[in-house]
Design goal:
Length: about 475
């Protein structure tokens, strides 16, 4: 039996702000239970859903040394879908109304979290062969493991995997303060280790110190080795290329299932897709849009940030809504400029666009299940889960060919009648508009082709099975070293 500990700052069903939570919370279910004991550890946030807090059972407590401070750590435990989750409790660090706040607070709380995770292991009596860290919040864990704990027998054999879900967020702050918070020796803040343009960089620490580095799609693994996609760390990624792999994310096929999804009004399947049209009509009605089968309804479910390509959308929205027969349903929260943009267009074209600024699992599922197309013109996209969710419900993605979007959406080829969606290459608003018009033409004038494409998209397999086997191989390689 191999023991694996997945460490993440968020995991469904307990806390989610984006795709990291989907990955950390759904991947563990898909390992071979006869060979791998996979557990998850995350912070116990005060803002976690009321539904779950009472289910967590107290296990133990101890004190973590953070340089000259000693901080309380409580460990709680819960079972979900057959997977054991541990939670690190500290009300000073994790009491906020959201998991992340100002960077100067976050660097301290996640330094604490990484150290608390390591110190908890002998106390909860779980000796992992591999610790699998995710994103900058856990970047210091491999650093602490090799520098502070390396000589202790309990820790000496533990190997680490570090998965990059987003290269843009690196956890950077003043070296002097990070040295003070962590107690890490000054000499490791050099340009070959934790230093980056005069600051300490947690993501870089993870990349340098982990035994293996992965990211969430093969194309993104290539992109982060280039100056365009490397966010300043491309040189380091090239150095680590032999230990870097791109493993495509999956989605949870039990949760995103058009035949059983409790959030959607009418269930449907490839064999009988009629329920989808009823969902569309209902969604149009609920959102005050004209109820019409023949108008292409485009969905957007997203964090509203520049990563997701909303500058292109903002640039073209007026033209699309004033000249084209299309409708939009938008669900998202994020930067004010994009929230304001969608509010503005909603008030200008209320019968063509409906924007819900907020977070809602239920509404997300309704949109995936009810729309004809799903727009995701990302500037960059390490993997992207939304386009896979959309395809699972026969909603055809319109995407930019970047990162995981390129690896998961096959562009429509009208000559060979192939493809599962639509795509454009350059980050250019007119190219996006052109492909949306093309999709609209296929939708309106080649209905049989559209229908066949929906079926192909629904038949794609984006379940975790394939990717979980790849992670198993990586874990095996490390634990047999
Ligand atoms: P990212 O992690 O970059 O935000 P992904 O496509 O990997 O992008 O994952 C986004 C996840 O968050 C999906 O599960 C998507 O359905 C969900 N999501 C994003 N915004 C919202 C929202 N406003 N309400 C509900 N779910 C959302
Ligand atoms: C990040 C990326 C997204 C990816 C997700 C899960 O949030 O932006 O592309 O799907 O992590 O790996």
């Amino acid at each position: 039996m191999e023991n694996i500990l997945i460490v993440a700052s968020e995991a469904i069903p307990y806390m989610k702000t984006g795709g990291l939570a989907d990955v950390a919370g759904s991947l563990p279910k898909y390992f071979d239970k006869n060979k791998y004991d996979v557990r998850v550890i995350m912070p116990k946030y005060k803002c976690m859903s009321e539904e779950f807090l009472p289910q967590l059972k107290f296990v133990c407590h101890f004190y973590v040394n953070l340089n000259w401070r000693k901080q309380y750590a409580g460990i709680f435990k819960a079972e979900h879908d057959g997977v054991t989750y541990y939670f690190v409790d500290n009300e000073f660090y994790f009491a906020g109304d959201k998991p992340y706040n100002n960077i100067y607070e976050d660097v301290e709380k996640f330094a604490y979290f990484s150290k608390a995770v390591l110190e908890a292991l002998p106390i909860i009596d779980f000796a992992p062969d591999v610790i699998h860290c995710n994103d900058w919040q856990t970047g210091l864990l491999p650093v602490f493991l090799k520098t502070v704990y390396g000589s202790d027998n309990f820790y000496a054999g533990i190997k680490t995997v570090f998965t990059i879900h987003n290269m843009k967020f690196q956890g950077r702050w003043k070296i002097r303060e990070i040295a003070d918070i962590t107690g890490l020796p000054e000499h490791i803040f050099n340009s070959g280790e934790l230093e980056f343009y005069g600051e300490a960089n947690y993501l870089k620490g993870g990349i340098v110190y982990a035994d293996e580095v992965t990211t969430v799609s093969p194309t993104y693994a290539d992109e982060i080795c280039t100056p365009e996609g490397g966010e300043g760390l491309d040189g380091l990624m090239l150095e680590r290329r032999r230990h870097l792999s791109g493993i495509l994310n999956g989605i949870d096929y039990d949760v995103y299932n058009p035949m059983t999804d409790p959030y959607i009004k009418k269930h449907f399947s490839i064999k009988d897709i009629s329920g989808k049209l009823m969902n569309k009509r209902q969604l149009q009605e609920d959102h005050g849009l004209k109820v019409d089968n023949d108008v292409m309804l485009i969905g957007i479910v997203s964090r509203l940030t520049d990563q997701k390509g909303f500058d292109l959308v903002a640039y073209m929205m007026d033209e699309m809504l004033s000249t084209m027969d299309v409708q939009f349903v938008v669900l998202g929260t994020g930067e004010n400029q994009y929230e304001g943009m969608f509010h503005y267009f909603q008030s200008k074209y209320p019968d063509k666009i409906s924007a819900y600024i907020g977070y809602s699992e239920e509404k997300a599922h309704e949109i995936y299940a009810s729309c004809d197309a799903f727009l995701m013109p990302s500037l960059f996209e390490p993997c992207g889960l939304s386009q896979m969710m959309a395809m699972r419900y026969g909603t055809l993605p319109i995407v930019r060919e970047t990162g995981g979007l390129k690896d998961t959406v096959q562009p429509y080829n009208e000559y060979e009648n192939k493809g599962t969606g639509f795509s454009f290459a350059d980050y250019n608003a007119h190219d996006m508009l052109h492909v949306i018009k093309y999709a609209n033409d296929v939708f309106k004038n080649h209905k049989d082709r559209w229908q066949e494409m929906m079926e192909r998209a629904m038949r794609e397999d984006f379940s975790w099975n394939a990717s979980a086997r790849q992670y198993e191989k990586l874990y095996d390689k490390l634990s047999h070293k």
